[in-house]
Amino acid sequence: MPEQSKPPLHRIELGAVTPHNFRQLKCVNSVVFPVIYNDKFYQNVLEKGELTKLAYCNDIVVGAVCCRIDTVGNQRKLYIMTLGCLAPYRRLGIGSVMLKHVLQYVENDGNFDSIYLHVQVNNDSAIEFYKKFGFQIVDTREKYYKRIEPADAHELQKTIRPLKSENTNGSHE
Ligand SMILES: CC(C)(COP(=O)(O)OP(=O)(O)OC[C@H]1O[C@@H](n2cnc3c(N)ncnc32)[C@H](O)[C@@H]1OP(=O)(O)O)[C@@H](O)C(=O)NCCC(=O)NCCS
């Protein structure tokens, strides 16, 4: 009899955020983040296709990621507004599945300069997590957050393509 392969211990999947399940996104974010996101935030992330996803572990919602596209000067950037996983489900690779999804989205699009996000300066686990995927601290902003402590935030960024040169004719000054 052929040996049967065992199913993985944790089946991690991503699913769409729709009007039917967006309360689950609200629920995850309210537990995972100290910041309270308002109704406008949730209206904006609804039906955003690949930019907003719920993460399931064995069919249970345990995490979520919400991104938006920003244009800063001549830079097209993907901003990770929230990416989080419920505490009991951390270190199982769920955050990685969500971040790999974002990286794949950016690669498929082919027209992003960078991916960036903000984290509280004391959020060591998130900083380690993002560094593992090639993000670097590029800025630190004092009093970035209004109602939480510490209020200071690091900006983490992963460059997708180098800064466009002002001088495109190949000559140097
Ligand atoms: C950051 C966060 C999303 C990571 O999610 P996760 O599902 O635990 O991450 P993963 O299991 O995929 O971890 C991948 C790697 O990141 C690093 N990492 C994750 N958590 C870490 C921690 N607490 N300390 C050190 N390294 C850590 C490790 O290298 C880990 O690989 P390993 O487990 O094989 O050592 C999760 O801690 C979280 O939800 N935090 C609260 C929300 C938040 O701060 N989000 C970031 C701002 S958007």
TrEMBL record:
Q: Which BP terms in the Gene Ontology apply to this protein?
A: mitotic sister chromatid cohesion
Q: What is its main location?
A: cytoplasm
What positions does the domain N-acetyltransferase occupy?
12-161
Q: Do you know which InterPro entries this protein is assigned to?
A: Acyl_CoA_acyltransferase, GNAT_dom, N-term/lysine_N-AcTrnsfr
Gene Ontology terms for molecular function: protein N-terminal-methionine acetyltransferase activity
Reaction(s) catalysed by this chain's protein:
N-terminal L-methionyl-L-lysyl-[protein] + acetyl-CoA = N-terminal N(alpha)-acetyl-L-methionyl-L-lysyl-[protein] + CoA + H(+); N-terminal L-methionyl-L-seryl-[protein] + acetyl-CoA = N-terminal N(alpha)-acetyl-L-methionyl-L-seryl-[protein] + CoA + H(+); N-terminal L-methionyl-L-alanyl-[protein] + acetyl-CoA = N-terminal N(alpha)-acetyl-L-methionyl-L-alanyl-[protein] + CoA + H(+); N-terminal L-methionyl-L-phenylalanyl-[protein] + acetyl-CoA = N-terminal N(alpha)-acetyl-L-methionyl-L-phenylalanyl-[protein] + CoA + H(+)
* Assigned EC number: 2.3.1.258
Q: Keyword Nucleotide-binding on this protein?
A: no
Per UniProt, which keywords does this protein have?
Answer: Acyltransferase, Cytoplasm, Transferase
Question: What GO cellular component is one of the record's annotations?
Answer: NatA complex
Q: Which Pfam families match?
A: Acetyltransf_1
Compartments where found: Cytoplasm
Name of the protein? N-terminal methionine N(alpha)-acetyltransferase NatE
Q: Provide the taxonomic classification.
A: Eukaryota, Metazoa, Ecdysozoa, Arthropoda, Chelicerata
